[in-house]
Amino acid sequence: MSDLDHNTLRRAIAEAALSLSANAIAPQLVADALAYGGAKLTTHGALSVETGAFTGRSPKDKFVVRDGLTEEKVWWDNSGALTPAQFDLLLSDIKAHLAGQDLYQQDLLAGADPRHQYGVTVLTPSAWHALFIRNLLIRPGEGIATSDAATPVTIIHAPLFTADPARHGTRTETVIALDMSRNVVLIGGTSYAGEIKKSVFSLFNFHAPADDVLPMHCSANLGPDGEAALFFGLSGTGKTTLSNDPARPLIGDDEHGWSKDGVFNLEGGCYAKTVKLSASAEPEIFTATRTFGTVLENVVLDANSVPAFDDVSLTENTRAAYPLDVLPSLAPGSVGGTPKTVVFLTADAFGVLPPLAKLTPEQAVYHFLSGYTAKVAGTERGVTEPQATFSACFGAPFMPLHPTVYGDMLAERLRSSGAQAWLLNTGWIGGAYGVGKRIDIASTRRLLTAALDGTLDTAPTRVDPLFGFAVPTDVAGVDPRLLDPRQCWADTDAYDVQALKLVDLFRNNFKKFGPDADAEAGPQLLQAAE
């Protein structure tokens, strides 16, 4: 199968199925999920599902076909490899596995800019997975410009298929396999729906740079003059929460492209974390969880079928998948102008980083490549103290190219646009996790507003002695002591020890990019830490 006709492939799978439901809308998919898929309906009308053994992605089971296109491009240290023959055998076996089953087909779009658009067809035996991806990708005819020449993508989803490592070249019985040359994705052995969404992003991340588009794992919203603001951050840093602002129309929640013309959303929905969700702290997301057609993943329901968002007995990675149109304030067409502000979010559980820091373009690239946040004690088995997490470009598992490819593109975009980059810490102050306290959301929002509206462009700053970035010393409505984390510690010597520990973690992580990347991207941090 060196050449592939997507229509022929899709038709072959459909003809072998017991039945095919094409482009069913939410009421039918909800009804089928309730009747056949083990789903439940919450008292407010959302669909509640469980994903079984896998409550998160399986990055070590992701593979890319190693061929003439990918051989010299893919960051193989970050991805497993399959031969074209292994992929074709896997495809044949998955097709045989799905034969005779009831299937659902969703024909959707990825990319709100018609010049950079994918026509994505997902085939799955699961009604709720079909609803999930229908919520998250762009539904044709719903206000997004459409291209007649969208690049075809086919995703074949077989959650109950069992891969054979000896036969298919996989690591385990679970597999996520991407053929970048033919834009075909095979997913087997996992019911975690995020694998479908992220496979689209992985394809986009591979191809977009060749079209002079920077692919980004970020949220984005619009300022009063139509300029975009970008919010990068790993899970738990507040990316979705902070980008949802009724005063700033949302472009998108999670995945975007930055072209010479501005920013465009890749998706048509949101995939928000719901752990400890409350109506007061995150009203837009909370309302979305009470909307018919929203899919709630691994959220425990109480005796009255009301979501218990504080219950993490299944997983802390509880999620809600819903279409953008349930939100109150959206950017027309899911596009925006050239970014004016770039925000890197981190939740520093070491209690070291300031709540807000102004970055030079070089520092911005350094923090982009580092992709830092921290796990806190108790979130995972065996984690008893803060643990640094570094994910290049804030999304390493689905960045197929080497991170410096994306870093170089970001550097060029920052230089050409004049966008100001900020590091916004939503983590702990006054001590590490367990001693200090988390920075309150009201202060975080005030700091973010001041960064977005230009108030801090000429505000007084101090230079952090270890990280080298500029830290504002006076922000209206924010306690000045909060802006200097060292002064918030009862024992400043203990702060110094903790700060040097964090610097060393940054330095050691950055070594994987090589000496050239060290010298170019992180001079302020590295020189200060000598």
UniProtKB/TrEMBL annotation:
Pathway: Carbohydrate biosynthesis; gluconeogenesis. Pfam families: PEPCK_ATP. ATP binds at residues 198, 217, 233-241, 282, 319, 438-439, 444. Its main location: cytoplasm. Keywords: ATP-binding, Cytoplasm, Decarboxylase, Gluconeogenesis, Kinase, Lyase, Manganese, Metal-binding, Nucleotide-binding, Pyruvate, Transferase. Mn(2+) binds at K198, H217, D254. GO terms for cellular component: cytosol. It comes from the Bacteria. Its cofactor is Mn(2+). InterPro entries: PEP_carboxykinase_ATP, PEP_carboxykinase_C, PEP_carboxykinase_N, PEPCK_ATP_CS. HAMAP family: PEPCK_ATP. This is Phosphoenolpyruvate carboxykinase (ATP). It comes from Devosia riboflavina. The gene is pckA.
